[in-house]
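Session log. Operator J.P. requested a structure for one protein chain; no other inputs attached. Running the standard single-chain path with token output.
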Amino acid sequence: MSFDPKLQKSEPQLALRYVPESEGEAASSQPDGQRRILVLGATSGIAEATCRLWAARGDKLFLVGRSADKLNAVAADLSVRGASFVDTTAVDLDDCSRHAEVLSHAVNALGGLDVVFIALGVLGDATEAEHSFAEAQKILQTNFVSVVSLLTWLAGYCAQRHHGTLAVLSSVAGDRGRKSNYVYGSSKAGLSAYVDGLRNRIDREGVSVMTIKPGPVQTAMTEGMKGSSKFADVETVAATLVRAIDKGTDVVYVPGIWRIIMGVITHIPEFVFKNLNL
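Structure written below.
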């Protein structure tokens, strides 16, 4: 069930040819409408809930995350729920040198690629990150640098085949920097800008690129945070994401009210905003 590839030096251009273009382009011909879905950061709360919905409709899933034990537990659950195929790779995606190898292996295992859901991310310690570049760097590495590395390979693969959906988990925190979490917010702001530009470049190649901007969601990552009992239900968020990915939505706020909230916040004049405790 679990695969942990050894580090090799391989060129991404070669990895792109592991699956013939003719096979990659025949994405809609999967039996019974099954979709081949790669999930990166698969043990996050939002990713798990979303995968459960995909499994229930019989999709094929390849899961990537840090912990082999957690991945295997999630994979076993998804198999019981109806996934037609589940495989896993345990790897620390902060190590960008392993990305080409892991991604090409996942594509081979799935027999092609229809959807990629990139859900890796960390909140980090906001207070420590204000004074420690080492902590800030960890947040930026996971939330921005690593995701850009993954998307560079995946965008090339999908654009070659004129097919695929790249769904990327960003955050409403990236819409405007706030004193409470500006390092985390800046990592998501950079990611959202990158995804916007990527969409502008490859949408015309037949590739859907989606920016997902959730507000606070009830998951293990937010457990214990002030007001967490009022955060969005993760199952409801997952259902919204599945519908949006199926439709090929460009940008989705979940819950939708956050589009209005952040619209207001981003238009507060700076001379007022800098005196607010947000």
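Operator note: The CA atoms of residues 155 and 170 lie 17 Å apart.
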